[in-house]
């Protein structure tokens, strides 16, 4: 299905995850963040988003929370504070990645 974000038409799943990562940009990320209840993306948010994207490019998989903590050096506590109520699900969505397999 199609959706307009930041003035651009993008392809998304029924749950709002981008289906084409090449359509992602920072303006779209900001709009997705607002949709999931995060009004402002701070430098810490971007650190998580950039780690998820980089790790996905390197491994072909969305990292688990454990990997974000261990390899990304972002504490689980910080992750939950930055992306409350489903940190990996929200962070992946904002990063333009698909829904993590571990999220229901």
Task: Quickly describe the structure.
The protein has 104 residues and is mostly helical. The chain has helices spanning 26-35, 43-59, 65-70, 76-82, 87-94, and strands at residues 2-5, 8-11.
Query: What kind of sheet is the major sheet?
Result: 2 strands, antiparallel
Shape: globular
Gyration radius, rounded: 13 Å
Portion in strands: 5-15%
How much helix, percentage-wise, in residues? 40-55%
Classify the secondary structure makeup into a structural class.
Answer: mainly alpha
Order of helices and strands: EEHHHHH
**What is the rounded distance between the termini?**
21 Å
Number of helices: 5
Mean pLDDT: 94
How many runs of DSSP E, i.e. beta strands?
2
- Major sheet: arrangement of strands: 1-2
Low-confidence blocks of residues? none
Your description of this structure?
With about 100 residues, the protein is mainly α. Helix content is about 45%, strand content about 10%. It has 5 helices and 2 strands. A two-stranded antiparallel sheet has the order 1-2. The protein is globular and about 35 Å long. The two termini are about 20 Å apart. The mean pLDDT is about 95.
């Amino acid at each position: 299905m199609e959706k307009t974000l930041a003035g651009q038409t993008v392809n998304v799943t029924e749950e709002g995850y981008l289906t084409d990562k090449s359509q992602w940009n920072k303006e779209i990320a900001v709009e997705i963040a607002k949709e999931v209840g995060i009004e402002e993306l701070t430098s810490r948010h971007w650190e998580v988003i950039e780690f998820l994207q980089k790790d996905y490019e390197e491994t072909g998989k969305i990292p688990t929370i454990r990997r974000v903590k261990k390899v990304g050096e972002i504490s689980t506590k910080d992750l939950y504070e930055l992306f409350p109520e489903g940190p990996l699900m929200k962070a992946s969505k904002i990063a333009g990645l698909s829904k993590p397999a571990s999220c229901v």
